[in-house]
Here is the input.
Amino acid sequence: MDLDNLWAVAERARARQKLSQDDQMLVRENLPKGLASFPHLDLPKSINRQLKRLKGRRLLQTLGKSDKAIKQ
Here is the structure.
């Protein structure tokens, strides 16, 4: 995969410029194929629990509630 071309397409997309047919083909077909070989990492359960807990706290903060108010 040509990363320089990928960055150029990303810059055009951020600038909201129209993407060419080749750019669209890169994003739709070539990029998913190139990322398929990217290593997938399964995190340990302890890390997944911590991530879920953090997401829950952020949701509570968004709702304006504290952890103490929920536990009571």
